[in-house]
Specification:
Layout: E1 6-10, H1 17-31, E2 38-42, H2 48-55, E3 61-64, H3 81-86, E4 91-94, H4 97-102, H5 107-119, E5 123-128, H6 132-136, H7 140-151, H8 157-160, E6 164-167, H9 181-199, H10 201-204, E7 208-212, H11 217-224, E8 231-234, H12 241-249
Parallel strand pairs: 1-2, 1-8, 2-3, 3-4, 4-5, 5-6, 6-7, 7-8
The structure holds 1,3-dihydroxyacetonephosphate (13P).
Binding site for substrate: 10-12, 174, 214, 235-236
InterPro entries: Aldolase_TIM, TIM_sf, TrioseP_Isoase_bac/euk, Triosephosphate_isomerase, Triosephosphate_isomerase_AS
GO molecular function: triose-phosphate isomerase activity
Length: 251
Amino acid sequence: MSRRTLIAGNWKMNMRCESAVALAKGVVAAVGSQPSAEVVLCPPSVYLSKVGEAVAGTPVELGAQNVYAADDGAFTGEVNPSMLTDVGCQFVILGHSERRTLMGETDADVSKKLHAALAGRLVPIVCVGESLEQREGDETEQVIERQINGSLAGLDDVRAAGIVIAYEPIWAIGTGKVASPEQAEEVHAFIRQELSKMFGKEVADQIRIQYGGSVKPGNAKELLGQPNIDGALVGGASLTVEDFSGIIAAV
Ligand SMILES: O=C(CO)COP(=O)(O)O
């Protein structure tokens, strides 16, 4: 089963209009017309339109960092799937640990967003991952199992094949402490086993599982070389053309 490597840049709450467009153009130029991987940029929502214009007609794709699960209406401050596709998004990150911890997003919220995203023809990137305390308490598999089951509740096999999972151990996010390739692969294999239980092996084998947490040009090759690591969700190192294209070049 060959799964195309997916490298996504999660810019989080960084950049301004001019620097966002410059970064997007720089990535477009660096990856060229036949990138070694599928490449997605996820800028803050206010810059989606501008970055979308910068990548239009190129192999670089656009993703959002969050979405609200409702049709148009009285939801002050929110953005729905139809608005995201309207500005050119193909992907949306869901349930990032920063949203789970800082904004109190639950697995049930993520599941609602997942169904709304799929109905709106967006590819969801569903984030899961344990805290340091949970890892040290030997609860990693339990936590991941709960997040996978809760976040993907009600998903059918056909739609499941098209989603993306991102394994992001919280202790490795923005800390410079990357999971070793073996540590990451162990959890990725466990996630695929869980997906297999839910959707069958054939579907589970099609689902891409990205790793996220201090991915840099220097550690990307080893991580991406693991059998169940199908890409990277990159934070800090996606903010410069040099680092981000260095990670893509490692594919
Ligand atoms: O949270 C992340 C991507 O979503 C990872 O962030 P860093 O690459 O900065 O550790």
